[in-house]
């Protein structure tokens, strides 16, 4: 008597650079799925990554991956410039996609990728670790449940020298980073996630070094009349990050949630008194994968969609424009953006 084996839930991993990719491979296995292929523009890098993590196949030829019927999902952790290449190829092959954020370097490209995935009927999700944080998810629930009254503002504070993602290969070099694409887009996405509101106008000020902004302060007016205020810097001493949601009846204060050093703590302030909010920690990568796979099975929504990433990019571009022109910039809604 033959035993029927369940169908393999296979993954292709595209991009091999950062340590975070290894953590995602571990999470893929943790949810009972199988990483089957590693894809890179360098055959040597693909082979090294596959050997290190026990992934059976490595290639530079994506057609070999698409011909494997076990591959249902694609995780893209490639460089920002190369993400669109992999997204388009995976969508055309009919594979559901989880891509590191931001989705692309600009909102115009992001819109094209979203449309292509929609035309091919595949899920496009974006890996936004700040949304997967148990503390941020608790903040969102408390805000939307009205536990601190009507939200008035969200303030985000973080700074320190630029820290590129930890790389597997020491020869990978990066420049000083983009305060807009490395921080601003992520923080705007977090504000949208916490409040459910959309940005409509931005004013910003920036300091530049060698023609590139490295120190940024801005305020965004949200559609509900609340404000997002942010301080983001590569030009200050390292500081403990803080996310503050202030409402008419109380305040939520999350400390240390915007770095990889730990999960942080959440405090609720009501009637002049502070209380620690207990939060059960959860692996960010596993949480992201579970929501993505459920969406691919039509059982829910990803933590962050391609449209979420595009909306954050639209607002980030408005912040950059406001900083350059030193005047307020209107943020057009995603579906009306040219």
Plain-language structure description:
This protein is α/β, with parallel strands linked by helices and about 350 residues long. The chain folds into two domains: about 10-130, Rossmann fold (3-Layer(aba) Sandwich); about 135-280 and about 305-335, 2-Layer Sandwich (Dihydrodipicolinate Reductase, domain 2). It has helices at about 20-30, 45-55, 60-65, 80-90, 105-120, 130, 135-145, 180-195, 285-295, 305-325, and strands spanning about 10-15, 35-40, 55-60, 70-75, 95-100, 125, 150-160, 200-210, 210-220, 225-235, 240-245, 250-255, 265-270, 275, 330. Mean pLDDT is about 90; it is low at about 1-5.
Instruction: Quickly count the domains.
Output: 2
Q: What structural class is derived from the secondary structure elements?
A: alpha/beta
How many alpha or pi helices?
10
User: What is the name of the CATH topology of the largest domain?
Assistant: Dihydrodipicolinate Reductase, domain 2
What oligomeric state do these chains adopt?
A: single chain
Largest sheet features: 9 strands, mixed
Helix content range: 25-40%
Tell me the span between the first and last alpha carbons.
Answer: 61 Å
Low-confidence stretches: 1-6
Q: Reading side by side through the largest sheet, how are the strands ordered? A: 14-13-12-11-7-10-9-8-15
How much of the residues is beta strand, in percent?
Answer: 25-35%
> How many DSSP E strands?
15
């Amino acid at each position: 008597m033959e035993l029927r084996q369940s169908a393999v839930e296979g993954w292709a991993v595209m991009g091999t650079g950062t340590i975070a990719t290894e953590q995602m491979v571990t999470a893929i296995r943790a949810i009972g799925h199988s990483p089957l292929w590693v894809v890179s523009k360098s055959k040597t890098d693909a082979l090294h990554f596959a050997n290190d993590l026990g992934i059976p196949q490595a290639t530079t030829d994506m057609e070999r991956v698409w011909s494997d019927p076990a591959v249902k999902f694609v995780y893209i952790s490639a460089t920002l410039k190369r993400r669109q290449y992999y997204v388009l190829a995976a969508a055309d092959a009919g594979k559901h996609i989880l891509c590191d954020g931001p989705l692309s370097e600009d909102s115009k490209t992001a819109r094209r990728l979203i449309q292509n995935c929609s035309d091919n009927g595949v899920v496009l999700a974006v890996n936004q670790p700040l949304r997967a944080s148990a503390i941020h998810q608790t903040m969102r629930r408390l805000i939307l449940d009205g536990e601190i009254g009507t939200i008035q503002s969200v303030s985000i504070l973080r700074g320190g020298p630029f820290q590129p993602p930890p790389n597997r290969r020491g020869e990978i070099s990066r420049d000083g980073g983009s305060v807009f694409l490395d921080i601003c887009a992520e923080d705007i996405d977090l504000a949208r996630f916490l409040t459910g509101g959309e940005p409509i106008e931005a004013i910003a000020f920036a300091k530049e070094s060698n023609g590139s902004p490295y120190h940024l302060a801005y305020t965004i007016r949200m559609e509900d009349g609340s404000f997002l205020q942010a301080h983001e810097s590569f030009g200050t001493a390292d500081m403990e990050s803080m996310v503050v949601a202030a409402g008419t009846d109380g305040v939520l204060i999350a400390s240390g949630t915007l770095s990889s050093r730990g999960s942080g703590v959440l405090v609720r302030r009501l009637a002049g008194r502070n209380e620690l909010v207990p939060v059960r920690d959860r692996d960010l990568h596993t949480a992201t994968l579970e929501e993505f796979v459920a969406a691919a099975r039509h059982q829910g929504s990803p933590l962050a969609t391609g449209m979420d990433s595009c909306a954050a990019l639209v607002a980030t571009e408005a912040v950059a424009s406001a900083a350059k022109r030193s005047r307020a910039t209107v943020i057009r809604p995603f579906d009306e953006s040219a």
